[in-house]
Request: fold
Amino acid sequence: MARKIRKPAVRKQGASSGARPQRRMVVLVATRKGAWLYHGDAARKTWRADGPHFLGHVISQVALDPRDGRTLLAAAKTGHLGPTIFRSTDLGRTWKEAAQPPAFAKAPDGQTGRAVDHTFWLTPSRAMDRDVWYAGTSPQGLFRSGDGGVTWEPFSSINDDPQFRKWMGTVQDGTPDGPKLHSIIVDPRDSRHFYFAMSGGGVHESVDGGRTWALLLKGLDVVEGFDKAQPSFHDPHCIRICPSNPDRLYQQSHCGIYRLDRPSDTWERIGKNMPERVGDIGFPMVVHPRDADTAWVFPMNGTTVWPRTSPEGKPAVYATRNAGKTWQRLDAGLPAKEAWWTVKRQAMTADASDPVGLYFGTTSGDLWMSRDEGRRWACIARHLPEIYSVEAAEL
Amino acid sequence: MKVLIPSALRSYTELGEAEASGATLAAVLADLDRTYPGIRFRMIDEQDRIRRHIRIFINGEQVRDLSQPLDATDEVIIMQALSGG
Reply:
């Protein structure tokens, strides 16, 4: 049903020498003009670039299936063409297009239906739910694949639910390149327990496999003057669940940094403990793989006309080691001044090594990493297109 | 009939020209998709609308309706419209 793409891989940087490491790191970088894979050695010191894949395509995300360590999904579109999903079962040596990419149901005659502009977010289900993936789209839609990403179907009833459609608003109500459904989270203890978020449209939870959904908005702020009770005015940017404590979630929103400890349904604004001159506005949210008290954010300037640059042109990661009571600035190795970029919501991540490696990609196309949980940063690739997503995995 | 393919879609067809048949534009595009799976959805969305940056011409005239009747001798040209940087 689908085509194969013959693409010669480009190798630009020298591979590490010596014995083959036992475990390798791969960093998956999705950009506005294609995708790159960076293969690292076990020490995460040398990196080999594999790319560009899909040069010229807008790639929202490249995700590795953690259940087999080989299958990649890439969410793609181009300026001219409609959206699709490419799939590789050999770590990007060859790609095949999904036979049935995410698409909304055809509207009844006389009604105006929606069309997927791009798939924005990809989430593999739990370790035991082999071949199950979820996708969030722009405009907001929720989709599921049960065959490893080959075919996709609308998931639950939210795509056509009148109440959800009202909360989703129109394309004009969304972020500059379209309203998005993102942060799809499957509880690792229970495949019927889901969270997802919409920009705009708020945070939603289901405990019955997506049959019914409840709002999770208590404690969240909205832009001054708007009604907090209206889901449409809530703009969560990124939500992450803690692998070491799935009852804890962290959220970076348009209006602050929050923590939620279940069974409570009230978010606590832990960003109020950030330095006032930096603020607590940003896109990404990163959690520690083994310590639920540790999380990282990348603040941006959210004042006046929302420049969405590093505050004062001085980029920095901020970390908390005590669940948000205090924050520590981590900028060693980053530009000290005159750096007017920022980091988008999917473009910052952590690996599972000890100490944890952190990675982020900038809107100006640089890829940065830290081997020591943010204490020291180094740039491992420059001059890429605008980076949309960064993921890291051990092979 | 002859269908001219823009560069953005030649990853499907390899060549700039393809053969397809059908009594309407919709039927021709469906036939094209049978030969080159996936190509139609890149041009036509799930509501059967021609995508924003795709243009289709029949014998030099732009067509917006997929129900447009076609003759076997007609020439279909698919073009990629201007799309930003």
Remarks:
- The mean pLDDT of chain B is 95.
- The beta strands of chain B are 2-4, 17-19, 54-58, 61-63, 75-80.
- Residues 25-35 of chain B form the longest helix (11 residues).
- The helical segments of chain B are 10-13, 25-35, 39-43.
